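Most newcomers find our protein records easier to grasp once they have seen one. Sequence and backbone structure share a record, each on its own labelled line. Nothing more is needed to start thinking about how sequence determines fold. As an example, a complete record with its sequence and its structure tokens follows.
=====
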Amino acid sequence: MADESQLSIDTGDSGSFTLRRSLRKLCRLERELHLQHFHVRRRQIQLARSWMDYDQDLTLLQTWYKLDKNTIPAVYRLLTVRLAHITLTTSVGMGIVRKLGRKAWRSSCVKLWNVLWRSGPEAIGEEATCHLLKTGLVKSQSPNVYVLVLDWEVEQGLGGKQPPEEYSHCYKRIITDLLYNLKNEYAPQFIDLHKGRSEINQTLHQAQQRFIRNIHLKLRHTNIHETNVSWGRKGLSAKHNRSHQFYVERLCSHVQRTLTASLNKLMQVRQAKGSFDMQRKEVSRLRVEEEIHRHVRFGKTLAQGYAFRQDFLMEMKHALEASASSQNALLLLGEPGSGKSTILAKLAQLIPSWIPGNAKVLMCFVGLTSDSRNVRLLLQTLCLQLANIYNLKTEMSESLSELSSELCSLLGLVTEDRPLTLLLDGLDNLSEEHEADLSWLSDALLPNVFTVLSASTQSKCARILQSQIKVTVLSLPALNREDVTSGLVSRLASDFRQLTENQWNLLFQSCLSCPSPLYLNLVYAETRKWSSFTPKESLNTPMDPNKLFVSILVSLEREHGPCLVRRTALLVSLSCSGVTEEELLVLLGRDDHVTREMAALHHQTIPVSEYSPVPYAFVARLLHGLKGYVKEGESDGTWVLRWTHAEFTHVALQRYAPTGDSVKAVHADFADYFNGNVPNSQVFQPLAWMRKEKGRRCYEFNLRRLHCLPYHYIHSEQIIPLLTQCLFNYEFLLHKLWGLSIFHVEEDLKAAIIPEKELLDVKVLGQVLCLSHSVLLNDPCQLASQLLGRLERIISQDKPVALGDPRQYTFLHDLMAQCKSSSLPVLVPSYTCLFPPGGLVHTLLSGHMSAVTALAHGRHCIISCSCDGMLNLWLLDEQTRPVRSLPRARGPAVDWASDSLTLCLDDSVLVLQMGHCLQVREVDSGKVLYMEKDSLDVPVVTTACDGRLLVVFYDGSHLVKVFDLVASCSLLRCVNLTLDFEPVHKDQSILVSRHSFKDYVLLAYRDGGEAAIFNAKSGVVSVTLKAQHPAASIQAVEISSQYLLLFCSYPYKRHGEIIHIELFSTASFQYLRSILGCSQDYVSQVTIAGGGSHIVAFCPTPHSTTTEIVIWNLETEDHKHMARFPGLLAHGVCSDLRYCVGFCPGERCLRMWNLASRINDQTLTYNVHKVHSDGTSEIVTMQRYPRYVVCQSTRPGTVRIWNVARTRFKGRPVQVEHGLFSSSDIALVRDLKVYILSDHGAANFTDTPTSVYQTLLVYDLLKKSYVKKQSGLFIVPCPRQDYRLLDGEILLGLSETRDHLILWDLDSGYIKGRIKTSYKETLLSSMDRDSQIMSSKEKTGLVMPWDRRTETQTAKRRRQDREVKREKDEQQRLDREKFNSIDQYLLSGDEQVVICSYFAHHLNVFSVVSEEHLHTLEDRWSHLSLRTAAITHSGGYLVVSNYSEAQHAPYLTVWDTQQGKVRKRLKNEPGICCIAISDDACRVVFALQDSTS
């Protein structure tokens, strides 16, 4: 802004530019006139001076300047105020010292300027003097100096290489009536007046006008914006004058438009074209390419400064040559700061000359950027570099598993003539995402690939690398004397410096005591502050880089304040990949200690707002003091401050945050800042900024908030805010999916999982994102549709059962509500229309660089083929990456993108079919054994004789060829089939079984009704199999070891079809039975799994674009729908239920399902047309017939007999009886006889009507008839489990009041006896005093010794009375429990002893023979129950699980029922669910809930 009264200018870049010739002449003329005036003035002053004046000038110069001989050439340095006025710091405080020092400098500054102005031309010349005074003394009171300084700033600002009109604008304000208002009190603010007079200071005014003319000469008039304003109230005030307010608003608007136009011109962003997924992939690719360039530039910078350890480089060269044969990775270990990164950077330059061939180098410095610390993004960078090296046009994957496999596949392309070197530096700097997984490195050790890694010696990463990967360890040696000397000398020479002898000795000895490059660089940077006159006591060089850093922090604390330094160090150390300057300023202002310190030291008062930033000048000074320790890097699209070395983080945390709580507090401050919802806050942290460009909205996402907010919530352990503000906040999820990717959200979900407490909401949300993975990658705006379409029904059904009960899902309800009020217009489904979570989830198997086209399974492996002809071999184990890539075809044959693959001859021969072509090759060598091109019909391949014979049918003809693979694929048979039925030929009409039995292959024609068994050896059709109904339409055929399977489609209901699996015997070829499917089975292909016990079918549905995996059990005929997923499966294989593998068209990954994990899940059963098998309610063993067991069904009246001793157990009962009894009857089984208590009603022969069983029916299972019926019984009804049949047809049950046991004689129908308790004598505890869990002292309550000493006799008597009363009440309560009703009872195996429980603290032992009460097992501190108990066969011992109320601990107790005593106790055994005991009670076996042991 240029004003006619007061001038100021906003300068642009500092530089130089060439003025037009006329302007240059004017400037030179003005400078010459000024120099002449300067020379005349100086001569006049010199004539009036005496020798005393010169002596004073010399004294002043010697006071403030001192000769520094450490620079070459030597220079006079201006001393600091503290050194120039030493007396200021001796007896006064720091605040007064600053004031006095500031005052002394102001007075001396003018004197120094005058001395230099007078004496400078004779010493250094007039031009140099003018230059010195222009740049040195801005604060001078002389008007001439002021003008000179402004002229200098204009020359610097408008002197760039580009024309100044490109970057400079001048705003000139003219107050038209200013001269008429010079008497106004506000006039001095707008024009230079004499002090106390309303007259213009012509000297300053002329200097101002000269300054304005200079601007007009150097800047085009189009960039000078003039505005006329008039004088108003209080001069020029927008607050008091409406016209002035309009002027200010117009001025600000013009400045904003000008700056916006200039910035848009400089920041032209090339918008990616295409759909959102294409735009996102393009942006991701550009980001990765920029990441690669940063690492390359950083490596070149490090390599240029390499000057140490030349001998160690030769050692690394020899180790690298040796690794070519051993395929070991080189692991470079060294202490932090030992120069590992520089060694690898230099190695990257030398390797192309060391390794023969066109060697390529991939280099990555982990920790250089925020993306390089993430394993997933690191692999993405490596894969893109490899793809660029080999000119592969492939899409980048983003998941960790896919990238690991793709890296392995890309490294498999490395050849001997183009070797590759992979340099990874600082692997111990990997962040916690994916737990810093390094397993992918083991697959990178391939031929022609040289891998060099580096890590710190004592790091966890180094131990993992040495234990999991084949490495050759090289330890980085320390610097020797020659390295230290050369390093210091070269640095001094480049800086044109030298040191005194004492300083050199001190520096050299310090470097020898800690011979590391980091320490050498740091301590040398400190010596730059040394001058030749620096006192010796000020030369402090700690002998350790960490201590040196601490000393720097201490000195900065003295200069800037300890609170400011502490807070700054913590913010830099605990930030997420660095802290921006804005974050630093605001978070410093949040700390109360910092604000109080600034108010005390600098008299700076921070505003009251909670997030008011501190002045930038203080932070800038502090950061300047940390120069060399703090660097600027890129993160999340902005520039951040981070430590130059990771070791500084540990030092800062150890000094300023020794406890975990202090660390969490800083993370909490970061989280609050990024959350931005604090009241009275000036922090604006939106999720995205929106701008309109060419009529459309463009979003710039706030990546700092999207990345940092979850990070700091997790590290501050604020789980609830993490869930509510991030993971279950719809807008946050939407913007993170949109601005980053779904993989970043999945990383946050994984980090939020608490191992001790798994949150169901997080699990369900993770499953939903997994199901919606492909959709959200292409269009994240469908997040609301995906969430509501999958969870609406689940959330609507999540209602509390009773008032006050919690809901099953805590956070999903709010998330669903937010989805319905999205900030973006979205289509929201009104009901659940997508797959809900909870089904069987697939695992992605990555390893192909293009779409998969074919898949084949053998006995031990799986082979897949992709569009580029690559064949990958996978082992059937936990491996999620291909084991290896098969060699390319040898000879004139080419690699095909096969349509189908077949493995033969024990997985040693591979058959490829593509269209009308056929190729047979060896798996290991790639040698082509047979090739057939352009046949008239499409070949359909299968095998016979355990893979030794290759059988080729031709779709559309009757031709069949049989090849002997053992004899190098020689043609064995070539025949034309002769069938009993006439096939209908069409596309894909022939159906062939993938498996074979002996020499037999099963074939049929699609939609036909017959199948044929082809003998591959003889070349003839052996048998023809016909479907069981003329309406059958065969859809698939298969062979197992026992069955020939025809999958027939039959008409079902209206316009529907149903699958029948018709089973034929492989021995007799006769029809056996049929298994029904359901109307939802659209069978495309089938396979045999589980060793022939199960059939797996893949059922794609085109109209819904979904696929279901269904399964049949050939023995039990269970039909289950195991998995359903979006997409149409092109091909699938499943030889093992644990590894069901398939792929969808266009996908580069295979999908794998573990069907065995849910094979026994009955909720998946879908056979609605089959009579469901009944469950078993009770299994009874037969004493006289131990080969058989009798099972009572859950269906009333059904009994099954099983022969469990049969050699080949077929899973079928030997006898089934139905309708023996009704649901109101009681059925008891003993020795293959069923005793049925029937005729449940009221007894008529009693005074009070009583409900009884009055009839007994006995059914003999051997004779299959009723053998006895007896009426007139009086058997009290009980639950069925309360009845026991004893030897001699004695029935044991409970009385109607459940207070005693009754024995009924079933022969006579009368009561034989009653077993009751006997409490005639005083009940004594059946346990010894020593076996009691609680001692007598513990029973009486806690009385401290000092209470007893001060206790009076009266108080003691009252206490004893209370204890006696308490014991009496407790005993009475236990006695009352003796009359409780029976809860349940246990009967010994020999039926001699019965034990009853009573919901009490005791158990009763009875003798069945004598009908006597034997013992009472009592534990007054435990509630005894028989629900988890066991008794020996003779009834002599009882083991029971109980909980001690006194010890608050669970016990497992063994009782001696004959003695009524405890035999053994086992303490602290919680969660026991079942118990067993040996006959001699020496061993007890028990199981725990939720445990496999």
Observations:
- Residues 94-124 form the longest helix (31 residues).
- The longest strand covers residues 1265-1275.
